[in-house]
Each structure stands twice: as C-alpha cells, then as structure tokens.
Design a protein that fits this description.
The protein is α+β, with helices and mostly antiparallel strands and about 325 residues long. The protein folds into 2 domains: about 5-120, Nucleic acid-binding proteins (OB fold (Dihydrolipoamide Acetyltransferase, E2P), Beta Barrel); about 120-310, de novo design (two linked rop proteins) (Up-down Bundle). About 35% of the residues lie in helices and about 20% in strands. The protein has helices at about 15-20, 125-140, 150-165, 170-185, 235-245, 250, 260-275, 280-295; strands at about 5, 45-55, 60-65, 70-75, 95-100, 110-115, 210, 215-220, 230. It has a 5-stranded mixed β-barrel with strand order 2-3-4-6-5. A 3-stranded antiparallel beta sheet has the order 8-7-9. The N and C termini lie far apart (about 60 Å).
Amino acid sequence: MGVSGKLFGRHGGTSRSIGRYLNCEFADNQVVAGWRGRHTIPLYNANAIVLHRFDLGETDRIVTLFSREHGRISAVAKGSRRPTSRLSGATEPFTVARLLMATGKSLDVISQCEVRETFPALRSDFETLMCATYLCDLTACTLSEERAAQPVLYDELLSALYLVQLHPERADLILRTYEMKSLAVLGYEPSLDRCALCGLKLSSQGTDYYSPSVGGVLCKKDWPQSSDRIRLNGEVKHAIALMLRAELSDLLSYPIRPAIVSQVKRVLTPTLYGRLDRLPRSREFLDSLQKNWEKSIPANRPQADPESVPPED
C-alpha cells in the first residue's frame, strides 16, 4: 500500500518560493506537479535503499539513496522527523522503498514512498547492525559519482542485507564477498590465473604471492619485486574465485572454512585501502568489535586452525 507525503497546499506560488521551501532552486518556468500552471517539475520513480540519513533543521532529513535505476541520489525528506510523518519510515537506514521523486537543482525531494523492506532483524543485534552499516558505508564509498546506475551492485547489496539478516553466523563470508564484488564493479577485479605484471599463466594449485598495489597474483620471477606481497595458497585463491563468480545466496552452500575467510580478509583489506578514497570507519569499529567478541566468547564461533593459515612473510 502506497504511503504519500504531501508537499504543498492547494494554492499556486512562484518557483522561487517553492524553491525556498524545498531548500533548492528551480527554473522560473517550473512549477511542482499538482500546482496550477502550465509546467511541472520533472518527477521520476526509484527503487532505492537508504544508505545514510542526516537531520536537517527541526523536522527534515537529508538521505543518501542507492537507486537501482539512477545510482546514488541525495534527497531531502521534508517533515520526515515528525512523529506523524508518512515519510518517516522510508528514511531509516537499510530501508528498501519505492519512491516518487521530484527533481531539484542540488537535492531531489521525496514526494511519495512505499516501503518494501525494513530488515527488522538487522536492528535486533548490535553486531548485525554494524555489519549492515558497513555494507551501506562501503557502497557509499564505492559510488563516488551521483546518478551513475549500478544495477548489479544494487542487487548484490540487497542480497547481502538479506543474507546477513538470515545467516548472521556467516556474516564474515558475506562481507568479504561483497567487498570482492565491489572491487569488481570499480574495475579492480583481482587477477588470479595470470601474473599481474608479466601475464604468465599460473597454476590454480600451489602457493603464489598476491600484491594489493598491483591487484593480482605474481609469478616466482616477479614476486620479489613487490614489497607488499602476501602469500596465497591454492585454497585461498579458489575461495576468492568463488566469491567473484558465484551468487551470494549460492556461496553459503560452499564449505569455505573460517581460516580461509580470514586469509581472504587479509588480502582484501590493503586492496580496498588502495582503491577507495577512504575505508569506512564502521569497518574499523566492526573489526575491533569482532575481536573483542571472539576473545570474550571463543566457543560461540569456529576458530581458525593455525596449521591451515599460511605464514606471513
């Protein structure tokens, strides 16, 4: 059932007065849909996930949306902080909604909304809440440009949120897989079958070295040239290949051991640092939270087998 947020009254007005109300400006010949006049402000529909929200004034919010059709959008939800506002639910983080948007010069305006999913289980546990927060923060960092549609990444984010809610015990694997797919969207998919420097075809078995700065594995001839090399065995390479190719929902059926997921994280972290402008603060907080949690309740989570973890250089 649709939920609408009323923007204006019945009477007309100048485009400048409308623009002041919306905290943005419109051309002189534009009038909001529903106002008396010959012209209308462009309206469009968007299926979107709320990545961030910020308070604006006493009753409004600015939200960062990830739309399947339009990419990253910054928009204002007028009056959404009022207890009786029909837009309130559509501005909560992780919310998936069908939105009717009015185009503005700097910020678009949420006119109507239909909430599709709120992920209530993600908010019931602090660790899963932080996992979902990190997924949204990483997406915001990945989407550096406004209005650049990324439908594949949108579907991956939606799947990741659902899976963290359904399988919180596999959150580490889900986060690492989403990180890998985000790198692929940016054009930095790791090279695994050939040397990233000379192009020599490599065996899928055995131990190689991975360079985060180069973005792939290195052959025996080239790895001494890399100062940031990380030792990588065949099982870790196979896990990375699965994360890149398999659907998130299918990946949970593969027997990827926690020790291997930890090694994938060791490879991904410096790669993300090198490819993104910044790594979200929620990632550092989540890492510290998980370390403290594992120390306090070690029996609740499978422990890595020390013999299965390749030694560091």
